[in-house]
Each structure stands twice: as C-alpha cells, then as structure tokens.
Amino acid sequence: RMETDCNPMDLSNNTGFEEDSDYRDFEGTDVKDMRLEAEAVVNDVLFAVSNMFVSKTLPCAEDVAYINVETRERNRYCLELTEAGLRVVAYDFDQTDDRLQTPYHETVYSLLDSLSPAYREVFGNALLQRLEALKKDSQS
Fold it and tell me: Which intervals of the chain are annotated as region Disordered (predicted)?
C-alpha cells in the first residue's frame, strides 16, 4: 500500500483560475473555494483514472464540491470534497445518497488507492518513472 506525503490541497494555487475575475475575491482571504480545491484534485490524479471532473449539476459552495470519477475498472463514483476530506457519496455521476456512510479520506490518493487497484498501479509506475528521471539527472 503506497502512501505519499503530497497533499493535493496544497496544489490549489496551480489551477490558473487566479487571473479569472470571478475568483479574485478569494485572494488574500481565509475563505477556501472548494471548486478551486476540487479542480486541483482532478488535475493532480486525472492521469491515473479513466475520467474525472468537477460536477456541474451538484451545487458547489465555499465549503463543499462534488467530483465525478470513473476508475480504470469502469466503476463510477461521486465524491464529496469538504474541509473534512473526500468521501464517496454515490456509485454514479452527479448523485448523492444520504444513506451511504463512507469514511472520509485525507487525500485523493488514499481514497483512490482504496477504490482502484489499477489507479494504484498507474500511480506507482508514474512515481517510479519520476524517480528514475531524477536519478538520471543527478548522475549527469
């Protein structure tokens, strides 16, 4: 089981939305817009799943966003992103099921690691390739 110290929440500044006037109000404040966080999460792991995008039908707010993900095994999930972390809220896109009591995961990595063996393999291989490239760089 692979764990990483990298937290996708730290990557929200790389989304490119800062220039967008709609989001300028959030700069310099403590308010986190979960849509920006969700976009960062998607951008971080999209390479390791079949499909992943922020829901356009479920409401995004300052404190919650929903992400649709389809694993390489073709399983579909709707994820809820809050300050508490990420959790599965339905087994299809753009759905929530209040009866579903799934645990929160601190990172998208640990959530996908628990849902998708193929994600784990692709992510692990990408990590190994990156390490090999770093090793080559340091030897030259």
Answer: 1-22
